[in-house]
Design a protein that fits this description.
Number of strands of chain B: 7
Strand content of chain B: 25-35%
Structural class of chain A: alpha/beta
Number of helices of chain A: 22
Largest sheet of chain B: 7 strands, mixed
Strand order of the largest sheet of chain B: 3-2-1-4-5-7-6
Structural class of chain B: alpha/beta
Low-confidence stretches of chain B: none
Low-confidence stretches of chain A: 1-47, 124-138, 601-611, 630-634
Largest interface: A-B, 35 and 43 residues
Oligomer: heterodimer
Mean pLDDT of chain B: 89
Distance between the termini of chain A: 112 Å
Chain lengths: 634, 178
């Protein structure tokens, strides 16, 4: 390697001359070996005439030469004086270093979806159904960021299982493309309900009455059957609702065979064992009679659905025991009133869904947190923008003099009697007095005088005159009998426990179609669930039930999807009587309901179905009595 | 492969990038009704600083088209008729497979802005499932034939959301496990 040299001048006073004319064209010296700070002398000056071409020439005498010896021939002065020293440096020797760029090798994982999984039921045969399957996107379609996606519940832990649900197409998209067929276009919240039920092995659909829990459950069952995730389903409901379920299956899942467990013992036994029909429907009472067949060790259901699941809120009841023992993979509970009296009602339902998950006495907030992922509850106010309003009209009435006299006598005498019972006093005694007083609030037993009936007659005149129909609810068939005569001009029909089941459908059909039948008189027990009377715009609560949730169920016979218009609910209440005291206690109950379900959607109990009835202590408290062995409840 | 023999499945492919986790690819195979048949995804890939410097602005194309896509396609067991993507960089994978690679225009425009012939040269646009596919010109006939067979396909864009949702879910699980 040759050393390189650098010249280090020993003096620094070397500077180019400064007398250059700016109008001189310079000729560059490009020879790199002769880096002279050449001084160029002007060869032509500027004149007023057109400037001649300028040429610059090197004035060698006034130039320096770098690095060379003095050249007397050229007249150059060497700028490197003789005493300059030369130093040598090692040359920079670049080294080549290879940077290895590793190839990026991602790891992949995945899975195949089960073969045959499909949500598409067999091709419809009729042209009408075919038409519905090719309809245009639904009117209620949602924007892309609000798709109805099936999301796995928290208790699905394995990633593959969670992705199985997440990667399914959104339900609203399938409805819009005609791949999911419904006889009527579902509301978006109903698709949300289906998306909630579909992936869940344990859940409560607790929508307010009238929002279509039945439709949501049937549609979810249908999807699961079509996708092969279910093969056998048992649906348990109150006996009066069996025909309703059969009818609804015919509407929402016509291609799915349904069998009602009924008939004599041998026939039922055969039906329980049969595997030909995927969906079996049984009522609660029958379930207990057939417990041996239901609980047979060879029997197993992929899904058991309990309608009106509040039936099993009492964990000690035989119904609850039998239901909990049914061999099954999935458990769904449907109820508009998951809690009626206390948070422990929910424990009863969860003992069916997931035994031990909730415990009696659990703090309410803790229970609400734990159950949140399992419960879906919506109210009409939350989900139905176009639902007609429900207007309450409280008719606080003063008893007639005859009623008042009878009432005061009965109460004072009754309380004296109760106090005289001392330690033998039971809730049944108190209950009897309450019922007696409430009956007097309806009718004076001696004269039949009734302030409520007078008001009802007046109101019904208006209802009939406007061409509408009304439902009147009462707790007692006796009261209904008394009303019937006075309301004869409105063509009253009866629907209560004394009407045989076989005749009830006929009564409803007549009420729907007979223009002379302006009013139907119903008992809370028979008429509060499962009936669709949305053509009625007036509901009268002749007396108040113990439990506001039952009242709400009754009202929702008329105020439900398809309601013809605003529903006016007249709540009759005898002022300054036991009815008013009960009403005050029930108002407090609604607050408890709010606290429990505030996070699952429904938070406004004044508008929602809610709350429960009276407890033992509260019933004693109505008369300022002390429950034996308990505290006095004022 | 004759058009009539083409499989009845589409592969949706997208890659997500997260500062914390890196680049994750997902491949979702759907039948003609949009139902899922298979899902494959990668573990997150984190290119080194050296990759970032040396690949420069071409890193994204390298990862999406040359690194992640081939791995997912190799793992995929379901025969597929076409790859549908929402990132123009995915076109790079066409050099490794003999399948139409299509850019879902409406999906890509959400990130890339308007897609034109300048964005992806030598391509043409074909209507597909209420949207448009940008495909290489020489693959146009194959995609047109598929478009007819997939006329019941519900939505061109939506499946990408499913993949991203699935990747997010997988990353949540990974984070919990870590």
């Amino acid at each position: 390697m040759q050393p390189t040299y650098a010249a280090i001048p020993s003096r620094t006073d070397v500077a180019p001359p400064r007398d250059l004319d700016p109008y001189v064209e310079l000729r560059r010296i490009s020879d790199p070996l002769r880096h002279r700070a050449d001084h160029v002398a002007p060869v032509a000056a500027r004149s007023d005439e057109a400037p001649p071409a300028l040429v610059a020439a090197i004035d060698a005498a006034r130039s320096w030469e770098i690095g060379g010896e003095h050249d007397p021939d050229n007249g150059h002065a060497a700028i490197t004086p003789p005493e300059t020293h030369a130093l040598t440096f090692d040359a920079i020797e670049p080294r080549c270093v290879a940077v290895k760029l590793p190839r990026v090798r991602p790891k992949a994982t995945g899975f195949l979806f089960p073969e045959g999984a499909s949500w598409i039921p067999p091709k419809p045969e009729s042209g009408e159904s075919e038409a519905t399957s090719k309809r245009s996107p639904p009117k209620r379609s949602r924007p892309g960021d609000q798709r109805t996606r099936i999301r796995p519940p928290q208790d699905v832990v394995k990633l593959q299982d969670r992705l199985y649900y997440l990667l399914q197409p959104p339900l609203d998209l399938l409805v819009g493309s005609g791949q999911l067929n419904f006889p009527f276009e579902p509301f978006p919240y109903q698709l949300d309900g289906i998306a909630f039920l579909y992936p869940r092995y344990a859940c409560v659909l607790a929508d307010e009455m009238g929002l279509g829990k039945t439709m949501q459950a049937i549609s979810s069952i249908r999807l699961l059957l079509c996708s092969g995730e279910l093969r056998s389903v048992l649906l348990v409901c109150p006996k009066p609702l069996v025909s309703n379920w059969v009818r609804e299956f015919g509407v929402w899942a016509p291609e799915i065979p349904v069998a009602v467990i009924e008939g004599n013992s041998a026939k039922r036994d055969f039906q329980w064992r049969s595997r030909d029909v995927p969906v079996k429907i049984a009522n609660y009472e029958l379930l207990m009679r057939d417990r041996d067949s239901v609980l047979d060790e060879n029997s197993h259901f992929d899904l058991v659905v309990l309608d009106e699941a509040q039936r099993i809120k009492n964990r000690q009841s035989t119904t609850s025991e039998v239901v909990r023992a049914i061999p099954r993979s999935r458990s769904w509970a449907l109820t508009g009133t998951p809690v009626e009296n206390s948070p422990d009602d929910l424990v009863g339902i969860f003992d069916f869904l997931s035994p031990g998950y909730l415990n009696p006495g659990m703090p309410m907030t803790q229970m609400a947190d734990a159950s949140r992922d399992y419960i879906l509850r919506r109210t009409k106010d939350m989900v139905l923008d176009d639902m007609p309003p429900k207007m309450y009209r409280d008719a606080d009435l003063d008893l007639t003099p005859e009623q008042w006299a009878a009432y005061e006598a009965a109460e004072s005498q009754g309380v004296v009697t109760l106090e005289g019972l001392g330690q033998e006093l039971t809730i049944q005694h108190v209950f009897e007095l309450v019922l007696r007083l409430k009956q007097i609030c309806n009718f004076d037993p001696a004269t039949g005088s009734s302030t409520k009936l007078e008001r009802l007659e007046a109101d019904l005149e208006e209802v009939a005159a406007s061409g509408h129909k009304a439902i009147v609810f009462s707790q007692w068939t006796g009261s209904i009998e008394r009303m019937k005569g006075a309301l004869a001009r409105f063509g009253p029909l009866e629907y209560h426990g004394k009407i045989p089941h076989k005749k009830r459908e006929t009564v409803i059909e007549r009420f729907k179609n007979d223009p002379d039948s302006r009013v139907i008189l119903m008992s809370y027990g028979a008429g509060s669930v499962g009936l669709n009377l949305q053509f009625c715009q007036y509901v009268f609560l002749f007396d108040r039930w113990w439990n506001p949730a039952i009242e709400d169920q009754a009202i929702n016979r008329a105020h439900r999807i398809g309601a013809a218009g605003p529903v006016t609910v007249t709540r009759m209440l005898a002022r300054n009587t036991i009815e008013q005291r009960i009403s005050d206690v029930l108002d407090q109950k609604r607050e408890m309901f709010d606290a429990l379900f505030a996070e699952t959607g429904s938070g406004d109990s004044t508008k929602a179905a809610s709350g429960g009835g009276l407890t033992r202590d509260e019933i004693f408290g109505l008369f300022d009595l002390r429950a034996p062995g308990g505290k006095k409840v004022a | 492969m004759a058009l009539s023999d083409a499989p009845e499945a589409l592969a949706y492919y997208t890659v997500t990038q997260n500062e914390r986790t890196g680049w994750t690819g997902g491949l979702l195979v759907l039948n003609h009704t949009g139902r899922p048949l298979e899902f494959q995804c990668t573990l997150p890939v984190r290119p080194s600083r050296a990759h970032e410097i040396l690949y420069g602005p071409t890193l994204q194309e390298h990862l999406i088209g040359e690194v992640i896509a081939p791995v997912l396609l190799k793992k995929c067991r379901t025969p597929i008729a076409m790859i549908c993507c929402d990132q123009p960089e995915s076109f790079r994978v066409r050099e490794r497979i003999d399948l139409p690679v299509a850019l879902a225009v409406e999906a890509a425009e959400a990130e890339e802005g308007p897609i034109s012939i300048d964005t992806v040269p030598d391509t043409e646009t074909i209507p597909f499932a209420k949207g448009h596919l940008c495909v290489l010109s020489h693959q146009g006939d194959r995609v047109r034939a598929l478009s007819d067979r997939f006329r019941d396909f519900p939505d061109l864009v939506e499946p990408f959301d499913r993949i991203r949702e699935a990747i997010r879910e997988a990353q949540i699980q990974l984070a919990r496990a870590a």
